[in-house]
Amino acid sequence: MSKDTTLAELMDLSGTTAIVTGAAVGIGAAIASRLAEAGSHVVIADRDLQAAEMLAKTLAMRPAGASAIEIDVADEGSVRAMVESTVQQRGSIDILVNNAGIYPNTPVLSMSAAEFDRVVEVNLRGVFLCCRGVAQQMVAQGRGGRIINITSVDAIHPAGVGLAHYDASKHGVWGFTKNLALELAPHQIWVNAIAPGGIASPGTAAAMGDSTNGFNNVAAAFQAAIPMQRLGDPDDIGRIAVLLASDVASYVTGSQLVVDGGSLLT
Fold first, then answer.
1. Is the pTM of this model over 0.90?
2. Does domain 7-197+233-259 match CATH 3.40.50.720?
3. Which position among 105, 196, 206, 224 has the lowest Cβ density within 10 Å, counted as fewest Cβ atoms?
4. pLDDT over 70 (residue 185)
């Protein structure tokens, strides 16, 4: 890209195919929507196929359209099938966003080994499997690509008791992101991370409390500690994902962009 390339051209993702995991709702859906708006055909990969298909139908009005696929990111065969199906239908994979993740709240002294293992399987092993499968395809294509891993501010500083397994997995994803960026840079594949802070999403609501009042009370206390005085919106992450997927970030790899309203400053 030359210095004469316009900002609109730099942000244009027309002709690309993107896979977003955990994309049926919340942050994943916002990322998928923004990538589709930028011109990418988005493969909405989620365990909830019905919800994924509903979003794909909504995004079908975009010029490049969207499709849905069922996936368990912790299962090697499921990830392989996702990559093969996408290549068969679209011909290539240009962008991968690893967003799928779980965060049950359990203190270590009450945590079972199975619960710890499951969080690591989904949040860290799943990132490894998806990155490996998609990166192999990107290298074979020979034209570079973008990989974006969704970490968390918990990869930098713990949010509180009960998320030790989650924090361990997200620290792992951040370390994995940096090392993979080194490995893939010669292939023109840029690997970066986004670390969201508190985001008002269905997953956050479930973690903070099932009742509306319970969520509102916890969210209000959490929000009071954020310098911007608000929880983030899933679209705040979607916009940054487009930035990292585009040629605006053509000289950025191995970086983690914190999107937290300034909460780590406190």
1. yes
2. yes
3. 224
4. yes
